Amino acid sequence: QVQLVESGGGLVQPGGSLRLSCAASGFPFSYYAMSWSRQAPGKARECVASINSTGGPTNYADSMKGRFSISRDNAKNTAYLQMNSLKPEDTAVYYCKTQIWGIDYWGQGTQVTVSS
Question: What is the mean predicted confidence (pLDDT) over 39-43?
Fold first, then answer.
């Protein structure tokens, strides 16, 4: 059973940093690309960053380039999203995702709130 569990969200002031984690189980993690998406209230879910099965190359949405960094540790079956220079508009629920045989699997999400 594929399971993705996000953690690391919370309340942070503008300009601050957070590191999100996505613990994966139930599938051979090192074989599959991973991605992070986010959904703000009233908005569509958008892809933030993605990483291939071996840890590179990576892709980022334009608004995240230079601020966010996606990585993975295949030995720990975990993907990460390092978020720096956070802005209020980064407030959203952040989800990790993988796709196996054409099926998308999502975690339950972790809330990130950027506010002073």
Answer: 94
